[in-house]
Amino acid sequence: MKIGLAQINPVIGDFDFNLCRITEVMQAAERAGCSLVIFPELTLCGYPPQDLLERPSFINDHDRVLDVLLHRVTDMAVVLGALEQRQGPGKPLYNSALFLHQGKVIQRARKQLLPTYDVFDESRYFEPGGPGTTFSFHGLTLGMSVCEDIWHESMQYSVDPVVSLLRENRELDILINISASPYYHGKLYARNQLFSSLCRRHALPLLYVNQAGGQDSLVFDGHSMALNRRGEVCAKAAGFSEDLLLIDSTELLQECSGVTLPEDSINQVRDALVLGLRDYLHKTGFKQAVLGLSGGIDSAVTAVLAALALGPENLLCVALPSPYTSQISVDDARSLAENLGCGFENIPIAGVMEAYHDALQPFFKGLAEDVTEQNIQARIRGNLLMALSNKFGSMLLSTGNKSEMAVGYCTLYGDMSGGLAVLADVPKVMVYELARLMNREGEIIPGRIISRPPTAELKPDQCDEDDLPSYEILDPILTAYLEEHLGIEEIAARGFDRQVVEDIVRRIRINEHKRKQAPLGIKVTSKAFGHGRRYPIVQGFKG
């Protein structure tokens, strides 16, 4: 039979929109001759709905839409992710995969492994399901699973839902997995290895359907696929966009060749950031963005991403030079805006700085200038940019990167102002990789922006390395501490200067309060600041 793998981009809680989108894709699959179409995890309500699940009206709307959908399912069967209410002790909901046919729920599989690591908190809302069951359709024995239920090998859970399913029926022909699996750099390789190993170990074909789209800080990358029992990919869907992948079930029983898996690359990071930025603005009702274009690498890369996501006609870039800003910074900012075809304005801040100086002079008399005056410059810029955002209904994009956010090399209510921090999970070295990628087919970012030593230009002749180690040293230490969870001793054992490591860890610890007040960032690494990293502000652990 022909099967459609429908990776769609739902909107959390917009039940009528989601129903409409599901119906449109069902109709497209039926026109293509499909007997079965499969949708991602929690398709009806969107993923992750978080504490909306605690609202009875949310559950009622979900069930209302599910009932409407059931009446639209006739000859072509549908598998999709949905909520199921339950009674008795424990949580009030299941996270389920439902098999719908001829207006009825024929079979269900309830998610057994409820992840609570990183950005996940599913045991807060859901009760684990019991062992899955198999069912027959068009002469094939099918089994359903939900997302984490096939990640046993990677996470070493005490329960293996796939093994439990096979105990019931060793003649299982195809395993279906519906997912809402967020992206991070390195996830594609891990997922490909896991799926291929699972198929070979159980001699079992797999149909994997993933959500596509941005949701708050998360990006769901799609990349749905069909694998045969040898773990070979028979067909794959697009990455970072909606897609309907068509496959004939007979292909899963044959040797597959010529289909290469997507690889982790800087291109994937760019695509994730563009999708995350576009969906965050559009799903929150914004069409336009504004940002401060300093002539530095971070704001340049952010501007290119925004132009790709929103169209250059919907982007305003603003230079805000101070007396310490070099002319080449303003020139390079203007050149970049011209290359992109976006709006550009120049608002010097010297006069505002002077007003601040006059107001504070009685209190600061006799004291040397220090980081206070530098922060005032950043806050002046933040205020002016927020004024433009408020007046014209554009979202202000913050341009700071993960390396700066980690060590506090940023100013509260200044360069941290904004509705979305596009590069908040992108280390500085990766920012340069993105810039070089953007110039691969011709210079968009002026070469001088990439070649100049990074500087905040908040005082004469300032460079980032006056206060920080080089980013080639800083970023690996940050990765070891933040993503690999290594301590000072273990990081120093890799050959880094112990005093440098201690200073970086100290900075990470004492700047937790800044990150708690930072705008939302787009997750592209395995451990981003935000919901997936929950550290107390007040704490005394120094390791």
Account of the 3D structure:
- This protein has helices spanning 15-31, 56-72, 152-155, 161-168, 187-202, 266-283, 297-310, 327-340, 350-364, 371-392, 402-407, 428-438, 447-451, 471-483, 488-492, 498-510, 512-516; strands spanning 2-7, 36-38, 77-85, 93-101, 104-110, 134-137, 140-146, 174-179, 206-210, 212-215, 218-221, 225-227, 233-236, 243-248, 289-292, 315-319, 343-346, 395-398, 420-421.
- By secondary structure, the protein is of the alpha/beta class.
- It folds into 2 domains: 2-250, Nitrilase/N-carbamoyl-D-aminoacid amidohydrolase, CATH 3.60.110.10; 270-466, Rossmann fold, CATH 3.40.50.620.
- A 6-stranded mixed β-sheet has the order 5-4-3-2-1-14, with helices on one face. Strands 6-7-8-9-12-13 form a 6-stranded mixed β-sheet, with helices on one face. A 5-stranded parallel β-sheet has the order 17-16-15-18-19, sandwiched between helices.
- The N and C termini lie far apart (57 Å).
- The relative contact order is 0.09.
- The mean pLDDT is 95.
The CATH topology name of the largest domain reads: Nitrilase/N-carbamoyl-D-aminoacid amidohydrolase
CATH class of the largest domain: Alpha Beta
Q: What are the segments in which pLDDT stays under 50 over at least 5 consecutive residues?
A: none
The chain-level structural class is alpha/beta
- The CATH homologous superfamily of the largest domain is termed Carbon-nitrogen hydrolase
Strand order of the largest sheet: 5-4-3-2-1-14
Mean pLDDT: 95
Supply the number of helical segments: 17
Task: Give the biggest beta sheet.
Answer: 6 strands, mixed
> Judging by the overall fold, what is the CATH architecture of the largest domain?
4-Layer Sandwich
- End-to-end distance: 57 Å
Proportion in helices: 25-40%
Number of domains: 2
Number of strands: 19
Which descriptor suits the 3D outline?
elongated
CA-based gyration radius: 26 Å
Proportion of strand residues: 15-25%
